[in-house]
């Protein structure tokens, strides 16, 4: 397999990122992938890019976007004023699953968390994705918490 | 009971906030409450205050701080570029538990999430706190996700 490179996403990656988010059992019910992209995605991209505590990361192979994740760095008072990194929106293109791209994305986020001085990396994973739970457990994450959501 | 008021925390509230964080079964193992406060808490407070996507909220009664929470607003690409509010570090002073202060804090966070245009309010709660799980369920949260943590 050609080398996989991870980097911050640019506006030019957005079509492919949203296509990945929509090409997913749960994502297909809640995303709206059409070209040109709905403006809501562009607004969100601008907000993420403008925030130094948020990073949108893509995995690329031969200049093609094949994976995505978002990392959020948050300062907290708890744990003696410790920063945390939160990973969200991890997706890998259907055509390249099982090749370790997801592992590379998570390892990259862990490395970024260390660079940013975080004491903890955290994420929530939908209980409808048991294979994702096992994936994160293999990478060292523990399911010590309940992930609770309230839709507005 | 005198009226409970919720507002953004100031630096003058910090001693009392950290005292509350430390006066907790889990918090007592990981916080360091001594006066003057360790500088790490002041640094974290400054980082939170400087970030327009983070709000540290205190509940006060008769000008005494009796509760605290942190709300983080995050832009995401997922859910059609939807913002989320994340609640963390919720604590109520031991002397006033059971009086609805926690409910007021969460309701305040939900209201702030609506003002900020979020589509979702989320939090993780330690599986060692079953009473907290029930508290959040009564307020409408669903434990649809696993909350996974990796200590660095």
From TrEMBL, chains A, B:
Organism expressing this protein natively: Gracilibacillus dipsosauri
GO molecular function: acyltransferase activity, transferring groups other than amino-acyl groups
This protein's record includes keyword Transferase: yes
Pfam families per record: Acetyltransf_1 (PF00583)
Keywords noted in UniProt: Acyltransferase, Transferase
PROSITE patterns for the chain: GNAT
InterPro entries in the record: Acyl_CoA_acyltransferase, Bact_Acetyltransf, GNAT_dom
Name of the featured protein: GNAT family N-acetyltransferase
Domain of life (superkingdom): Bacteria
Domain N-acetyltransferase positions: 4-152
């Amino acid at each position: 397999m050609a080398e996989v490179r991870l980097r911050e996403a640019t506006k030019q990656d957005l079509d492919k990122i949203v296509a990945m988010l929509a090409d997913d059992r749960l994502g297909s019910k809640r995303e709206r992938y059409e070209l040109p992209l709905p403006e809501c995605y562009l607004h969100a991209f601008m907000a993420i890019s403008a925030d130094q505590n948020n990073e949108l990361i893509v995995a690329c192979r031969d200049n093609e976007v094949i994976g995505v994740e978002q990392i959020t760095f948050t300062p907290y008072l708890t744990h003696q004023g410790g920063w945390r990194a939160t990973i969200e929106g991890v997706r890998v293109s259907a055509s390249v699953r099982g090749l370790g791209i997801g592992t590379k994305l998570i390892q990259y986020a862990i490395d970024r968390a260390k660079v940013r001085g975080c004491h903890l990396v955290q994420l929530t994973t939908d209980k409808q994705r048991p294979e994702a739970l096992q994936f994160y457990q293999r990478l060292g994450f523990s399911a010590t918490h309940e992930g609770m959501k309230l839709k507005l």
